[in-house]
Amino acid sequence: MSAPLHERIRREIEAAILSGELQPGARLPVEHELMERYGCARMTVSKALQSLAAAGLVERRKRAGSFVARPRVHSMVLDIPDLEQEVTGRGQVYRFELARRIVRAPDPARADEVALAGRGDLLAIEGVHFADGVPLASEQRLVSLAAVPELAAQDFGRVSPGAWLLKHVPWTEAETRIAAVGADRLVAGHLGVADGTACLFVERRTWRGDEGITLVRQHFVGAAYDLVARFGAAR
Amino acid sequence: MSAPLHERIRREIEAAILSGELQPGARLPVEHELMERYGCARMTVSKALQSLAAAGLVERRKRAGSFVARPRVHSMVLDIPDLEQEVTGRGQVYRFELARRIVRAPDPARADEVALAGRGDLLAIEGVHFADGVPLASEQRLVSLAAVPELAAQDFGRVSPGAWLLKHVPWTEAETRIAAVGADRLVAGHLGVADGTACLFVERRTWRGDEGITLVRQHFVGAAYDLVARFGAAR
DNA sequence: CCTGCAATTATGTCTATACATTAATGGCAA
DNA sequence: TTGCCATTAATGTATAGACATAATTGCAGG
Known about the structure:
Two copies of one chain form a homodimer.
Chain A: H1 5-18, E1 27-28, H2 31-38, H3 42-54, E2 58-61, E3 65-68, H4 83-89, E4 94-104, H5 111-117, E5 122-131, E6 134-144, H6 161-168, E7 173-182, H7 185-191, E8 198-208, E9 211-221, E10 227-232
Antiparallel strand pairs in A: 1-3, 2-3, 4-5, 5-6, 6-9, 7-8, 8-9
Helix pairs in contact in A: 1-3, 2-3
The first copy, chain A, binds a DNA duplex through residues 4-6, 30-32, 40-44, 46-47, 49-50, 60-66.
Pfam families (chains A, B): GntR (PF00392), UTRA (PF07702)
Keywords (chains A, B): DNA-binding, Transcription, Transcription regulation
Protein name (chains A, B): Histidine utilization repressor
């Protein structure tokens, strides 16, 4: 009820962006229009827009207007590594090899799968990332088809599902678990290393708003990869 | 020259905080005082302070004033894990066992050590973290005595240097490298596992402003620990 | 001594207005 | 057509003032 007006304006626009109602690149109403809509002064809508700009959700350009920001592949906060980009960025040849791809219902015994699937099915993908022909990581991924219906039509012969998702479905929230494990038979086979070799295990869930998008588990050859994250005070 | 005034005010206060001139908890000048100092309107200093508050550097309370924020042990952005707190938080008994502690000059052959040391010496610490008597992680740490002179007097028989640093020397920037490695002889000995066991290797550098504070390398027993990071859109 | 009310003070929100800055746009001239 | 320039529409910065809100502080009364 009594939330400050600029907060309310901010939240309404934010909701429209997160829900996808306002697509990336879309122009949002100019300040004068918002002034009229909310019956307030320009400073007030300006404050809401500035705050959205500070959070990186919108981009403002003089004379042109305010626009929904295009999702940055590299988040300010953490590099969610796009392996394809990283490998090619190092001048190596990238390849993704699809091993399995099925659509199935969530396993009712696994609460995380049920939560991710929502009211739809899951797309389960397995494959291996190669750099210069050498296996770099093995990947098992679940994607909610309720959240990303376009994905069903997508062919992952060569493009990695991670890269596709980053481009097409911006996330707003992510949780990453990192551990070291010895490679089991399956992973060792994918990566071409001895059983028990130290591997970096990364499990990541991403959400858009509060809708789950994907859950991915990756095993990296320990010696060939490391993960770097840099943090600074928020601006 | 032509930076907006509210930006200039913001930067000057920020600098005073990062340099340590304004200690955590210190009260900063009230808005009217800043108005006079900069000869501007209240909205202008307010904007600068609001921006600092949004970045988490200051905390504002009505009637009371604005204060330099106490460093949050858990950064909004990443849990830089304080092992002691995490272990006791799980109801286990924490212990840190110091293995070595020397003050030495930086190795001139290692650029990172020289950069970290600045014009002073380095304190090198080695030890093992235990949870319920079981080794959890082995740690090798370098601390810049130029940045943290108080540390020379500190006794690390029982408290972990990481916990001490978190409390006493807030960082503003951090870089973390994570990889999986097989345990070498030294680490395996510390952790009481077989040579070659998969370990999570974490290397972290932290800075305050642009002065290096510490460089730490930790090896975790792969099976016993994992690292979780959660990210959301910045507020 | 404690309790509760009231005065005070600092920040929070908002308005209305002015001028600055930037860049998209459209028209004019080469 | 092409290139340039003036126009103009948008945001950026700033002022001055009003009223709202919260919390500290001190005072009065039990």
